[in-house]
Amino acid sequence: MTTTLITGANKGLGYETARRLIAAGHTVYLGSRNAERGRRAAEELGARAVQLDVTDNASVAAAAEVVEAGGGLDVLVNNAGIETRGENNTVLGAADVTADAMRTTFETNVFGPVRVLHAFLPLLRRSAAPVVVNVSSGLASLTRVSTPDDPAYAYPGVAYPASKTAVNMLTTQYAKAFPDLRINSVEPGFTKTDLNGNTGTQIVEQGAEIIVRMAQVGPDGPTGGFFDAEGTLPW
């Protein structure tokens, strides 16, 4: 039996990923910052609820104890993420972004995965086939954001793309440090979720496809890569 933890999983891409992996036979721990929302979502899906705020050391440590007591961990999906916006839900461009806005974004999107990885690595390394999926973004690609005819070029925000580029570096460095792990970054695509005010161009079932696929890679699967549903993406 494969045991999987998904952060930020009480809604959106995390919820759909949990649903799909449960259907594939995984035992899923549904990580949620809000314990009650997590409990309700877990009941709906047949998952195990675990309170997990990726910005809080004590919360992450407590979650690791729960998962360890439950028998260990094989797959970690770092899905929890935010996009810090300004007044009227506007994207903060280069003229408006502040250090505080950057710090808030990085606390969840970058320091969160580091915090979770640090806490759960001992469990993952005991698994026969450990897998980590870091949910990144096409906006993390320096190549795409700097190519004028790419849709990512037009995005004016600073904090969110910078945080996801940092996530890709985490993927690269952890993959080198732990060659027994399969650890990859994925780009779900512009999906309708609360993160973007449901303005995305695809539904969660489409967005979760690459997350679910990479959560199920075997020991001979890729590691240290950046993928969307169509294949490898440029850094």
Brief overview:
This protein is 41% helix and 14% strand. The chain has 235 residues and is of the alpha/beta class.
- Main β-sheet: number of strands, strand sense, barrel status? 8 strands, mixed
- The helix fraction, in percent, is 40-55%
Classify the fold: give the CATH topology: Rossmann fold
| Strand composition percent | 5-15%
Cα-atom radius of gyration: 17 Å
How does the overall form come out from the CA principal axes? Answer: globular
Helix/strand order: EHEHEHEHHEHHEHEE
Q: For the record, what is the CATH homologous superfamily label?
A: NAD(P)-binding Rossmann-like Domain
Structural write-up:
The chain has 235 residues and is an alpha/beta fold. The chain has a single domain, classed as NAD(P)-binding Rossmann-like Domain (Rossmann fold), CATH 3.40.50. Helices cover 41% and strands 14% of the residues. The longest helix has 19 residues, at 159-177. It is globular and about 50 Å long. The N and C termini lie far apart (34 Å). The relative contact order is 0.15.
Keywords:
41% helix; Rossmann fold; 235 residues; alpha/beta
Topology:
Blueprint: E1 3-6, H1 12-23, E2 27-32, H2 35-45, E3 48-51, H3 57-69, E4 75-78, H4 99-109, H5 111-124, E5 131-135, H6 142-145, H7 159-177, E6 182-186, H8 204-215, E7 226-228, E8 231-232
Parallel strand pairs: 1-2, 1-4, 2-3, 4-5, 5-6, 6-7
Antiparallel strand pairs: 7-8
